[in-house]
Amino acid sequence: MNPAVPVPPAPVFTLSETAVALTLALLLLAPLALAGLALLNAGFGRSRSAAQALLGDLSIVSVAVIVFAAVGAAIAGNSSAAGHTFYLGGTSWNWIGSGPLFLKSFHIAPVQAQLETLFQFLAVALGAMIAWGSGADRWRLSAGCAAAAVFAAVVFPFGAHWIWGGGWLARLGANFGLGAGFLDAGGAAMVHAAGGLSALAVVWIVGPRRGKFPKEGFSTAMPGHQVVYVLFGCLLCLVGWLAWNTAGAVLWAQAPLTALPITAVNTVLSASAALLATFTVTRLRFGKPDASMCANGWLAGLVASSACAALVTPVESFFVGAVAGIATPLLVELLELALSIDDPSGAVTVHGVAGLWGLLAAGFFAPQAGQLLAQLIGIAAILGLIFPVVYLLFALLNRFIPFRVDPDGERIGMDLHELGGGAYPEFVIHRDESYR
Amino acid sequence: MNPAVPVPPAPVFTLSETAVALTLALLLLAPLALAGLALLNAGFGRSRSAAQALLGDLSIVSVAVIVFAAVGAAIAGNSSAAGHTFYLGGTSWNWIGSGPLFLKSFHIAPVQAQLETLFQFLAVALGAMIAWGSGADRWRLSAGCAAAAVFAAVVFPFGAHWIWGGGWLARLGANFGLGAGFLDAGGAAMVHAAGGLSALAVVWIVGPRRGKFPKEGFSTAMPGHQVVYVLFGCLLCLVGWLAWNTAGAVLWAQAPLTALPITAVNTVLSASAALLATFTVTRLRFGKPDASMCANGWLAGLVASSACAALVTPVESFFVGAVAGIATPLLVELLELALSIDDPSGAVTVHGVAGLWGLLAAGFFAPQAGQLLAQLIGIAAILGLIFPVVYLLFALLNRFIPFRVDPDGERIGMDLHELGGGAYPEFVIHRDESYR
Amino acid sequence: MNPAVPVPPAPVFTLSETAVALTLALLLLAPLALAGLALLNAGFGRSRSAAQALLGDLSIVSVAVIVFAAVGAAIAGNSSAAGHTFYLGGTSWNWIGSGPLFLKSFHIAPVQAQLETLFQFLAVALGAMIAWGSGADRWRLSAGCAAAAVFAAVVFPFGAHWIWGGGWLARLGANFGLGAGFLDAGGAAMVHAAGGLSALAVVWIVGPRRGKFPKEGFSTAMPGHQVVYVLFGCLLCLVGWLAWNTAGAVLWAQAPLTALPITAVNTVLSASAALLATFTVTRLRFGKPDASMCANGWLAGLVASSACAALVTPVESFFVGAVAGIATPLLVELLELALSIDDPSGAVTVHGVAGLWGLLAAGFFAPQAGQLLAQLIGIAAILGLIFPVVYLLFALLNRFIPFRVDPDGERIGMDLHELGGGAYPEFVIHRDESYR
Hints:
homotrimer; mainly alpha; 2 strands
């Protein structure tokens, strides 16, 4: 390509009016995943932090969408906001979008560009919520909101531009012949992998909960306080994911209407295979299936499907989910025992690792030559560029807005400490000292 | 207009087949708001009234839709049921619809008229539920159902006809050059303002809960018994509102497909700005953010967006939400301390005031000349016509079906008194005498 | 018909692109019914089985969809997989579908056939979950999964083929002039009636819970442990049902877009009439309305609407729902007292009987001659063919995978026994010995 010619926007295609209407309807259903994930975050924590957990989810959603509307969307760009490039090695690298601040020209953009931004606007809220559950019971509300602002202003938008806004990852195909460029139709990369890696940054920064890793003996099991929230949340997430994966298939994988039913089937099969795999693994490992871990498996199956549901066959989707479901309990245990990572919601594994696995699987199963390499480059970019930036920004933030609550606050619970009242004022709660 | 000529129905426009399908899909998603609001109503009350609260929500929905189908829809009319008029001051005033009873010709009406009636049929259920949470812990189930019947038979249908059925408020533009006539695309007027004002009538009639305002000292704080329900309900409401606001934009504001993504963005931004505003206000006021009040703020932001999400820019929507979020905690406190209003769910403020604020804001930000005056006339009609009628009808009803439970019933809780059993038979509940 | 000519697939019609998009959007909303039903199943059981109840729901969904994708869908067939026939009495009987295993050609099938299979793929999960609530507190997880596999591999697919896949029940009209053939647009037959009858098989096989029918005196009331889950689940089910009934109307009743709003209205009216009927009956019977039974009534109204919402007028739908709502509390009591059936979730009545009632009502109210007879033949097939097969298969299964937990396991609760931990580890639960 002649470097003097301005970069055209991402691969142009025009949605039919029907596709626009369908995508819109699906995008308005997709935020059910926010409701489901909020319940998961709350249920995996302790009863004395449940109100703070849920208020945190709502606050983080609020901060994320506002910050993204103000600045993030401009960076992320869309198919009608070409982006800025630099030239290196004879190739143009489109690294940042060129949208206006404050969604200024949103209403006059082509409807397809509007839908792209709406997808990202809702997706950034989901991505920002992911780390919140990993910091449960010890991460301060204000710090959580600040981290969400950073995620929505910088982290997510750059990645979203690279992948969905016609950026350099999207153009790996056009520029280097690597398949169709980096593919992520449902948000596995910038929602889940980035969310899971920011969860990893958070658990490193805030450290484990008091009593989690006693000086002597094994780590303490700290079961979620409400398994019904956790498992019911999984079913709400299913509906949300069906919407994300199909809407994303239309917007980011140019899927025609006839490719969407199979995308839906694949989404359900991936979650189902993962749940049964985790069920089996935990039963073999502990003699009984572990309900919370099965929820994690189910969710890992959904997350893995985000990358590949639109690209694979039902049998392949079953396989992708099963691998995610086998890996989840093993990895959660490994992270806890080997790396002393205290991740109440398991988001590092469930969103981070399963997201990356889904992206890799999309490369395996895609028919195009070079797709696997494109996916590997994208994964490398997430691990090598996005993750260090997240970690550094969060560590920096931690200096100004300390992430970790003080020990007294942690002991009495986040609800009393941060909100002055609990989620269940009329219910009698166990005074289990081993939990204190 | 020649007074001899029959009034034509409301401004006619024809939906494309795509718009019909989209609106239908959105309307079937919208009742998620019923589920969310039911959880809010239950969560804001006491544990010993939780089953009655939820059974009341279901019963009220049932009564409202049946009564509306039987008589309300005839009064409300739609774009194919012109309505009846009288002549005053040289102008025709269309005051009542002319549909058949029992939805008799529903299936042969044009599909657009069907969708209009479907919107109202679902909206009346939402509007009727609003007052229920304000009467929590003391309002009898049968009286709640009777009030819902009155709301669905008379109150809602007249207003709906005036605003959505080609009635005199809708024709303020055509008849008097006031903008596009009174605008309410998402139900801020007859669902939320009317619902909130009927909540005000209820709290006046039933009076405060026992012990709420002791003879000496300040009012007693009576926190909701389940904050998770409240905050999770907010997220379900978000999905429901996205559907209401976009479906309403198509039906009542003739919004083209290209105007709907911004409507969705505005809905989310309004709720988010409101939540953060309430968060900040309560933190400044009490030292810590108040989780329940933040839920009220979020919901007030959604309610305000009902009127204007289809008409404003994202920045304006942020502003509308932020004002709603600042006002909510202040007004709730003012109503409680200055007017001794005991409103457990805060519906008077959250639905009533925020609904009116949204309608006003729609007038401010609409480009048409005279729109603000049209909105003010509509608001005056709600406050000057609808509210007195609601109050009188409810007060009259109270003579035949006493609203307030007897003191013994209130002491043992609505569940035991009205249903003979509680919502949580296996959980141990605090015997907090100060609550009794 | 000349028996030498191969059977053409089911009545062919072609969906418009708009109808395809709408149906897809509705089908992705429909699984909300899974979330609602899961909450109902958990809420009707005991607190000490709540985690097992929900994990069972997720596991059963997983098993059902995987088994259906692997083999069930091939048996069920669809409008592009004609099916196999035999000849008897001069007529061809299409008894089994001819799809490929493992959804192999799913992506190249016409989109309409894809949607048909997607409908069934999601519906089989709902049908398989129904029995789970009836076996609550004593049915082992692994046995529940095995039963779900049988249901999804054999029971559901054959029925689905007969009714929806162009099988002999669908062709009662073409072959014998019986109306439009057996009609079931929303799943009343193979989801609800078959689900409810498999629940009956389960309660017969596992027997009543310990202490339910003491040697002396009446049966013991064992109220559900969480009425909020139950009633809130009803509202989620409403949204799910709106989607099932409208999507089914398009796919199985060739309903045009203009017939869908009334289908939605009818769905809501049926549930509402049923709830109010149950409310009234239980109030007359016991002096106070019964909240859990009202939930059952509401659900029975939804189930009955599954068969006829697309075929009746609003007044008729009210009637159908009211009958379901009157019958539900009477039948639940009758089954418990006269037949000593211990059915915690009431699924035998709510799904089984109400499903059959809806199918019958569809015959009553359909305008076509012979439709009632077609419905009666279908009902006879469900009772005379499907039910015995379910019972025999489940009884056989029970020999290899015992359904019932051992007495010790039942006493300590399914959570501790099967999962090693409970749903509410931090909440204090009553030690009510009468429950033990």
